[in-house]
Amino acid sequence: MPNILIADDEKEIVRLLKIYLETDNIKVLEAYDGQQALELIQQNDVDLAIVDIMMPKIDGYQVIKKIRERKNYVPIMVISARITLSDRVLGIDLGADDYITKPFEPLEVAAKVRAQLRRLNMAVPQKSEAHAITVGDISLDLAECTAHKNGETIELTKAEFKVLELLMGSPKRVFTKEQIYESAWYDSGAVDDNTIRVIISRLRDKIGTEHIKTIRGLGYRFEG
Known about the structure:
This protein is of the alpha/beta class. The protein has helices at 11-22, 34-43, 60-70, 85-94, 106-123, 158-169, 177-185, 193-207; strands at residues 3-7, 27-31, 48-51, 76-80, 98-101, 132-135, 138-141, 146-149, 152-154, 175-176, 212-215, 219-222.
């Protein structure tokens, strides 16, 4: 039975989502402020976290950062009333896998949770199967989720790592925005051009502009 943390200071939202998720045989851990959320993360083996941004004591952005420091593979979904592009990009940049704005449809959230858990079960590499991707001066360690350029570590968010893994896995191949979005956020039906452009821009800043080429009208490809 998966353990899911829901952290939101609106108790009605936590209870509503709990009803829908428990029908999928999911155990829900409830937190009503950021400090309580971090304590539950420390005390329990959490498979996925749903985090509100505006919470007492410790805000959702800090919770996301702490989760990413301790549990790199745990999917994180943000549910927030903050709807600006800058809020969404900041959440994703800190390591969130999805950003859902309030008000939301509980059935949709439950479906996204199921998809995240399925992907997690398929994607987490085992130690014995660990391998790396190296193209030119860039290398990715898929077991440790780390990136290096000429031997020096490159700090990437989870979304940036997943996009780079997709592009480097098939150099010279052109990937559409839908494919790129699905690789990092698992939802090709909600492609956000601005979010993708931000991720690509930040990857270029970190690994070099020569490595990621824009193919006008189609998408992006990786050059060695």
